[in-house]
Amino acid sequence: MSAEELTFVEKYDLLGCIQCGRCTGGCPVTVRTPLNVRRFMYDTLNEDLLEEISAKTEIWDCTTCYTCASRCPKGLEPMEVLIGLRSLQIEEGRVQPTVRDALESIFKDGNPWGMPRAKRYDWMEGLEVRVLEPESEEKTDVLLFLCCTDTYDPRVIKVTQSLVKVLNKAGVDYGVIGEDESCCGSEVRRLGEEGLFEMCDEENVELLNSYNVDRIVTVSPHCYNTFKKEYHGLKTPVLHYTELVAQLIEDGKLELTGQLDKVVTYHDPCFLGKQNQIYDEPRNILTRIPGIDFRDFDRCRERSLCCEGGGGKMWVESESTKERLAEIRVMDAKELGAEIIAVACPFCLLTLEDASKVKGLEEEMRVADILELLAEVI
Amino acid sequence: MNGRPKIGVYICHCGINIAHTVDVDEVVKFASTLPDVIVARDYRYMCSDPGQALIVEDINNMGLNRVVVASCSPRMHEPTFRKTLITAGLNPYFLEMANIREQCSWVHEDKIAGTEKAKRLVESAVVKVRRLEPLEVKEVDVEPSALIIGAGIAGIQAALDIADAGFKVYLVEKTPSVGGHMAQLDKTFPTLDCSACILTPKMVDVANHPNIELLTYSQVEDISGYVGNFEVKVRKKSRFVDVDKCTGCGACAEVCRQAGRIPNEFDEGLGMRGAIYIPFPQAVPAKYTIDKENCLFLSRGKCGESPKCQEACEAGAINFELQDEIVEFKVGTIIVATGFDIFDARKKPEYAYGVYDNVVNALEFERLVSASGPTGGNVVIPQRGKKKKKKEDEEELGPVIPKNITFIQCVGSRDKSVGNEYCSRVCCMYTAKQAHLVKDKIPDAEITIFYMDVRAFGKGYEEFYDRVRREGIRYIRGNPSEIFKRGDKLVVKAEDTLTATPLEHETDMVVLSVGLEPRSDRREIIDILKLSSSPDLFYLEAHPKLRPVDTATDGIFLAGCCQGPKDIPDAVGQAKGAASAAMILLASGKVKVEAQTSVVDEATCRGCGFCVEVCPYSAIELVEINRAGWPVMVARVNEALCKGCGACSAACLSGSIQQRSFRDTQILPQIEVLGVK
Lengths: 378, 677
Prior knowledge:
The complex is a heterodimer of chains A (378) and B (677).
Chain A: H1 8-11, H2 22-26, H3 37-43, H4 50-54, H5 67-71, H6 78-91, H7 97-109, E1 140-145, H8 148-152, H9 154-170, E2 174-176, H10 186-190, H11 194-209, E3 213-218, H12 221-230, E4 238-240, H13 241-250, E5 263-266, H14 280-288, E6 293-294, H15 325-336, E7 340-343, H16 346-358, E8 366-369, H17 370-377
Parallel strand pairs in A: 1-2, 1-3, 3-4, 5-6, 5-7, 7-8
Chain B: E1 7-12, H1 24-32, E2 37-43, H2 49-62, E3 66-71, H3 74-87, E4 95-99, H4 101-105, H5 111-129, E5 138-141, E6 145-149, H6 153-164, E7 168-172, E8 187-188, E9 193-194, H7 195-208, E10 212-215, E11 218-226, E12 229-236, H8 251-255, E13 262-263, E14 272-273, E15 276-277, E16 289-290, H9 296-300, H10 308-312, E17 325-331, E18 333-336, E19 340-342, E20 359-361, H11 362-369, H12 391-397, E21 404-411, H13 427-441, E22 446-451, H14 461-470, E23 474-477, E24 482-486, E25 489-496, E26 501-507, E27 509-514, E28 516-518, H15 522-529, E29 556-558, H16 568-588, E30 590-593, E31 598-600, H17 610-614, E32 620-627, E33 630-637, H18 647-651, E34 657-659, H19 664-673
Parallel strand pairs in B: 1-2, 1-3, 3-4, 6-7, 6-18, 7-10, 18-29, 20-27, 21-22, 21-27, 22-23
Antiparallel strand pairs in B: 5-30, 8-9, 11-12, 12-17, 13-14, 15-16, 19-28, 24-25, 25-26, 31-34, 32-33
């Protein structure tokens, strides 16, 4: 039986739920929104009510951080029920204009930011980066996959440029796709646009498989997660940049000669940590930087707090006026005495930096990607 | 018996079970036409007394020497009709069953086709029965002694029962003392009996019983043989203390240079011991043991000028030269009572066990509330892993008494994410008990229990749960998802599912009600005894309902939590059951062994060993024989171990290994009648 033929109850195995409450108990947004994901696991058992239930605005509060699923004792994924309900809304065309625009932009130009495809690689100007040719005879070690935020967002472009500096310094044999690169579709799937995600899956797999490379390295944990877990037929192994860079340092290929005398903490991106158990590599990199006084958040690793950047939340404004999770996060960092919050995800970078401004901490606390810190010490 | 076969065929109606779909008259007519069939009859219930009498009469009057019964599955009534043949003086292996019920009438609707199939089945049985040979049922003597592995409450109880019945018992325990987990508990639910008070007398009894040989700090290394005749090899690890001389005075432990530096396993690491130690004051035997990994003299070759313990021991019991000892003995039966491990809460990192000192597991908490525990029964926040370095530190900190204690149930139970789908059966009740004990010790403490379902299924359990709730313990229905810190409080992040309210519950101390798991070293016994495991990885019983203490191997039984999580009453009950099953063997003194065993034609066996590999009972070994002056390897079957499953003969490439009553010459013609050539 294919997934299409399954009923809603079967598709999400709702009869397997014992209503223990671990999903809602762990859900980070419950402190600021009315979302109670366990109730959705219960209420959607009545499939006659699906339309009515999907109209509840809190289904858009989910950041798809995956905490609910990682805590479920029965191996269910409550978060997917919310995505399923979003799909019903999308099918009906009932969707916020910002979301509609983002999805349309991905369909048209391969990015959610409403930017023309031709400008995707403007960030590269003046840098030494090789654009790879598909079906090349010559094998390249690393295909660098940059997400739409890495390429278009003026703040995140600095991270991408830092990565180039790091890879060049370490002498990595790598290249990029160039203008043909398109959105990975991670946020598309999470916004409930199943059809468009299928297109992203098919087209990107075909594109990526056409390159003669040993491995694909992504900057965004969101691309990484989608490539690894949600694409069908991708032949090349995928790494997150923290895995590659940690190995470069370990192998002595990247020497850290500078000094960074700062108190640094690290914020685990949900898509890297909770969803892919990459906890050690980012810390291994940071603790190797000379001068750094590294202090972990109390809520770190498997207990890390989501920054609310995922699940399409970059395009959905929450109705809640309560303190954002990213704001709680920067205040926790302040209490820790951190001068820098290091991140390894473009969305975390943007949400946390924004929160530090809201809290008036931008003078005393810096939010930076690990790559930016590295670029300063090589 | 070598004369011409004279076969009687008996066709059962089984009321209408068979007759409804099979025309019995027609099958009788057909059967009587088959070669060598002297008589064919039908009867309403062949298995009844008059039905069996028909067969006996015909054997006596007509001189029948082969019998076919066409009725139900041999699993059901083969033993019945074998006895019938014995009554009539015929070898019971001259019987063949044709299963025309389970394999015919019950699974078909068409009477014409059903009747045809019944005829084929009867004919095939007739073809086979004429080729059968008489077999002899052998009996072997049973060594009148038992081995019990594990001396927790289950092992202790089984040992006492068997020893009281007058049989010799070898009780082997891995750790320095008997008692198991029960010895670690403070009080027991729901009666609040003091665990030590009810256990200690039994511990002393096993040590003093004239029929029990207690082997503590010992491990089973190897077991060979079969039911009634097991040969056991046990390693008695060296304690480096001569137990005959040691008086248990404790002078050695006081002077040990490592005293107070090594986490005591019995106190779940919350209390400290030295390198020479007794696990707990009531330990049996009350003899000291040197832990060689931590003893300075044994691990580094130097302990000050000379080991202080040796100087302090007036009895001269300490001897660093003592070696492990291997003990070998024979037993007739074995009971496995190796117990359980508690779930390692580190596998659920969201609860931050091992990160915060004030998150403890339930067994640690049990030691904290126990009067014999490291805090003398005072519930305080443990200073874990912090070695007492300086006096000032101790004075400055002092014990912190929690005023708000939170219990989390189902940690590592009913949880697929850690591979434990089962309910551990004891946690609901021990949590209620622990909450009650805290209320007793810290009356103004606020106590909360987060649960998903309360399973109070045993005698007096629901009543106890009622009592505890009325004492003011707050039960919140919702399984917590995360623990983090806010200031000096722990925050338990959960949902009250009854009101659909997400909570951030602040508390001073969290107790994780960890579940029971199969022991991490369970493979050691599996490898030695070839036991099977159920999907939950506990040892597998022979039948979940009707043979709950048996294993697939004759003479080996299970008791206690090694078979699955149990509370104390159930563990004791199962131990008594296993003891009783063992005593049936021991009391009868003889055991019948399977007659339909495999046999090797040593003249054609190529010694490839394939049969050895496929045999699930380790009944076949390769031996060297002399074949025409040349040494060759051939397979040999230990008939006492062989269960007649036939795996070897199916696997044998040269057809040299054959199973009695199922030889190729017997079953191939039978199969041919059924239409397979």
